[in-house]
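input
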Amino acid sequence: MPFIRLFVTMIALLPFASFTFAEDVAILQHLSPIQSVEFSPVDSSLVVSASDDNTIKLWDLDTHTATTFTGHTDKVIVVAFSPDGTTLASGSDDKTCKLWRVSDQENTATLEHIPIANQPPSTVTSVAFSPDGTTLATAGYQTVKLWDLSDNTVSHTFQHEDWVYAVIFSPNGGYLATIYGEGKKIKIWDVATKQSVTDLTGDVKWIGDIAFSPDSRIFVDAGHDGNVTLWSVSDWSVFGRISVYASIHDLAFSPDGKTLASAALGIDLWSVETGEKLISLIDHNRWVREVAFSADGNTLASSASYDGTLYVQDIETLLNSRPPSDIVRLIYFLPSDRNPQSDIDSKIEMWIKGVQKFYADMMEVRGYGRKTFKYETDENGKAVVHHITGGFTDTYYNNNDKWKVWDEIRDAGFDPTKNIYAAFMDFSEILDGLHCGTGGSWDHGGVVNLIASEECLDSDYGHWLAVHEFGHAFGLQHDYRDHSDLAIDLGGEEYRQASSDLMVSSACTAKWLDVHRYFNSGTVFYNAPTTIQMWPPRAADPEGIRLRFTVTDPDGLQQARLLATNLKEDYFAGRDYFENHDHLDEYILECESLNDTSTAAEFITTEFTSDNDTVVLRVIDMNGNFIDERFPIDTTALPEHVEDVNGDHVVNIQDLVIIGSNLGQTGKNIADVNEDGVVNIQDLVLVAGALGKGAAAPSISYNDLTPLLTRVEVQQWLHEARQMNLTDPTFQRGIFVLEQLLAALTPQETTLLPNYPNPFNPETWIPYRLAEPTAVSISIYSIDGHLVRTLTLGHQSMGIYETRSRAAYWDGKNALGEPVASGVYFYTLTAGDFTTTRKMLILK
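output
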C-alpha cells in the first residue's frame, strides 16, 4: 500500500488549540469532544489527544504549543504511544489505523482492520503496542489483530463473538485483555500460546475500561455500576473493590503502580495498596471520559465527554499535602463581627480529650481494650485547631440554616467526606432554637457541629453533648430502648449522663466501634458491595413482627442494626432529656452480631405504630464500611402462613422453588419453614402439602410448572421424601402433591410444538416434549427442501422443553453464520425413532 505524506501544522496559542492556566491547571481545547488521551511514556511534557474533529493533537506543555495531525476522514477514537515514544498509533471510525512518526510528524503506515477475509474493513475501536514495541494490537468487529511492525502484516487474529471495544497488553507482555460482547465481557489471552486464559465477569450494563498495573500483578475493570474490581493476576481472584458511586469511563495506573485514577463525574485518585481515596480532582462539570498519568507520575491529563476540553494538572503537591486519614480535625468557626474567645484552643482540646477518653473507657469496660479515635495534633502533641472567620455576621448565621457554614468550611479546603470534622461554632444562639449540637456520618468522614458557648459545652451536659454528637459522626443512631441493665458506670460525675446513653455506651455500640475505621489504624479501604435482601415480614406473638434479612459482603460482616422512625410512645417513656425526640429521626430497635460473608439477621419487635411504612437495616463490615438500606413494610397485612415463603399471601410453586434453591443451607434462612436450622426435604414437603393456602389454589399444570421446575428436580425431591418414611398426615399430603407435580411434568408422548414468536425476525424458539430420554436434533429446511441448519441438542432426559431456557433456539442464520432470507421454512424434530415437521415464517 503506498504511503501518503500528510501535512502537519504547528499551532502556537491559537484559539482552537489554546492553553490557559488556573491554579496549576492547564486547560487545552479541541474543536470537538475528545475520545482518547495519552502521555508520552518518555517525555512528561508531551500529551496527545484524539477528537471527533478527525484530528490528533500533540501538546507540548513546556513550550505551550500544539501539533495537529490531519488525515483521518472520520472521528479518531483512540490514540497510543509506542513504548519508546517515537511512534503514535491512532484508530478511527474511518476504518483505518494510522501510524505516525512523532519526530517529524509523518504518517508512516495506514492499516485496515479486516475481520474476516473478503469482508469490509472494521472501525478500529482500540489500539495497543506490545511492551517491546514490535507488535501492534488493533480491535474491531469480532476480532483483535496482532500486527508485526517490521513489515506491517497481521501475525495473528483473536476471534470474539461480538465487537471488541478495548485491547491492552500486560506490561510484562504475557497477557492480552479485551472488552467484548456488547461491552459486558472481559477475556484474558495468553500472548505466547494465543489461547484464552479466563473470562472475567464485568459490569452487567457496560464496562468502561480495563488496565494492568505496571508490575503486571494487578488487573482492574470498572463501568456502569461505579465499582472498581481489582483482580490478582496470579490466580485471577478478586482481592479488592472500590466504590465510586458513579459510572466509570476510564482507569489509569500511575507509573509507580501506587495510585489508581478513576474517571467518572470527577476524577478520584486511590491508593492501590489500601483502596483509600487519596484526593478528588477538578470537575469538568460533566462526565470525565479519559484520564492519563505523565511518565513521572506528577501530572494528570483528563478530558470531558462532550466539550472538547483537556485539563492537565499537577497532582504531586496535592498528594503530598493531603491530611492523614481517619483522624478527627478540629475547627473554630467565628462570625465576622464576633471576637474570639481568648482560651478557645485550650477549651476545645479539653473537650476533645474528654470525648476521646470516654470512648476509650467505654471500649475497655465492654472488653475491647482502650480503643479510641485520634485527633489532629502538632509536633508537640497539642491539638491543632483550625480557625475560620465566616463571611457573615452573627445575626446572619442565627437567622439562617447554620449548616450553611459548611459551604465556607469546604471552601477553606476541608473535606468532610475524607475526615471527621468537629466545628465549634461561636454563635450567640443555639442551633435551630433547639440544639447545642448535631452530628452525622458521611462516607469515610463526618461532621460534628457544636455551639462554642458555656451554656452548651460546660458542665456534665456539655460533656455528654460532645460524646453524643461524635457518636453520630461514627455512624451511631439514637437508642432509647428500655434496657437499663445495659447501662455502665464509668466513674466520675462527668460520665453520668453519657454512661446512661445507650447510643454511645451499649455493648451494641462497642461491637460497632470495634471495627470502625477511626478506632483501628491501618484498616484497608477496599469495600466489596454489601447486598441486603429482606424477606416478607411475619407476625410474631405476642403482637410483634418478625423481620428477616439475608446479608452478604465478601469483606466479612460485623453487625446489623434495625432502625425505624414511627415508633410507639412507650419506646421514649421515662427519658426526660429526650422529650423533644424527632419522629423523623431513625431509632435503633435491635442490633445483631454477624459473622462470615453471608448470613441471616432476624429481629422481632413490638415497637411499630400502624403507620410505620419503612424499616432500615444498617450493616457494618469487618473493614468498617457501613451501609443503610430502606425497605417498605406494611404492618397491617402480614402473611398468615409460614409456608408462604415469599409473602405474596398464597402458598404456591414460587415458594416451592425458593425452598428447592436453598436446600442444604444452614442457619437462619427464610426457607427454613420448620425452623430446625437447616433447609431440607422436610421444609420442601411442608410447603408442597400447603400449596393453595391463602388465595385460591392454582391448578397444577405443566404450563405453570415448566418455567420454574424440571421433572428431574421433582423426581429427586419425591425420592428423598419417600425415603424419610414419615406417616404424619401433613407430610403425606406433601408427598401426594409432589406426585401430582411429577405427573404434570411427565409428557405422555413426544411432541413438537409451534415455534415462538412466529412470524419472527431474526430469532425464534422451538419447544418440544419428550416421553422418554433420547438423542435430539432439529433440522431446518428452506421451502425448496434444502437443508439450512441442523441444531444438534444431544441426549436429552424425559421432560418438557418449552421455556426459552430449555427450548431449542435458532438465530435465523444458516450453517455458515449468514442470515437467511425472508420466507417460509420447515423444521423437523428427530428424537430417537420419532420425527415430525412443522412450518415457520421469517418476516424482515
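quick obs: Confidence is low (pLDDT under 50) at residues 1-22, 576-581, 695-699.
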